[in-house]
Amino acid sequence: MIRTAIAVLALLTPVLAKSPRSESALASNPVYQRDCAKCHGKTAEGRFMAGPSLASDKVVNASDDELRDIITHGHHRMPKFEGKLSPEDINKLVFQIKSRTK
Ligand code: HEC
To answer: CATH for 2-101?
Structure first.
């Protein structure tokens, strides 16, 4: 468990060094702006009639695995990103969504 946490931190260090760990990390991720912002909004607070807020209780309470699954395989009107984004890109989005909602 601790080893996993260290491995994850090591992976994310370059990401954290480049972008502030604040709630703007997700919004300043170019992958998010390109692939997600049109539905979830530029600041991830959701858009009317489109994607839901990514700072909702549901997202806060979802596990990393659940979020990764939704982004990878899609859910209802949420498109799947398997094959479009690398697992690293998806992990980064999950991490940024989680750090934003804490
Ligand atoms: C075409 C519009 C669209 C795009 C593009 C899109 N989403 Fe979604 N997303 C949705 C909709 C609609 C839902 C709600 C799905 C449902 O009904 O369960 C959703 C749900 C989600 C959820 C679960 C939140 C919840 O409350 O159920 C996450 C997390 C999420 N999207 C992340 C992302 C990420 C990260 C990206 C970019 C890689 C992205 N989405 C791109 C429309 C979109």
So the answer is: 1.10.760.10
